[in-house]
Amino acid sequence: MPDLATNAIVCCSTEYHGLAVGALRAGGLIVDDEVLAHIWPIHHENVHFYGDIDGVGAELDTDGYRPLRLSG
Q1: Cα dist. 31→36, 37, 54 in Å?
Q2: Contact between 42 and 6 (Cβ < 8 Å)
Q3: Residue 55 pLDDT greater than 60, yes or no
Q4: Cα torsion at 7, 16, 61, 63 (round to 10°)?
Q5: Distances in whole angstroms, Cα of residue 67 to Cα of each of 4, 5, 6, 19, 37
Q6: What's phi and psi for 41, nearest 5 deg?
Q7: Separation CA 11–CA 8 (nearest Å)
Q8: N or C: at which end does the chain have fewer Cβ atoms within 10 angstroms?
Q9: pLDDT band at 46 (very low <50, low <70, confident <90, very high)
Q10: String of DSSP letters for 22-46
Q11: Average pLDDT over residues 17-43
Q12: Is 31 in contact with 19 (CB distance < 8 Å)?
């Protein structure tokens, strides 16, 4: 089962990395493909293995994705 969980994390992280890069580029920021080649989608700090925090579910956008967090 750990392989299934790892693969799910990698797929989800890869998808959201693509969404984030697309949003940055749409905002006019230049994101170098050479830098993107060094991003690892295997991190899991953003994954909550024990359920929702404080019982609050994820709010999904019209495409079915969680909204990207803006820094600032």
Answers
A1: 8, 11, 35
A2: yes
A3: no
A4: -70
A5: 25, 22, 22, 10, 24
A6: -85, 10
A7: 5
A8: C
A9: low
A10: HHHHHTT----HHHHTT--TT--TT
A11: 89
A12: no
User: Environment class of residue 20 by beta-carbon count within 10 Å: exposed (0-12), middle (13-18) or buried (19+)?
Assistant: middle
Token representation of residue 59: 């709010």
| CA 55 centroid distance within chain | 21
Q: Letter for the amino acid at 4?
A: L
Helix (H, G, I), strand (E, B) or coil at 5: helix
So what's the pLDDT on residue 28?
A: 95
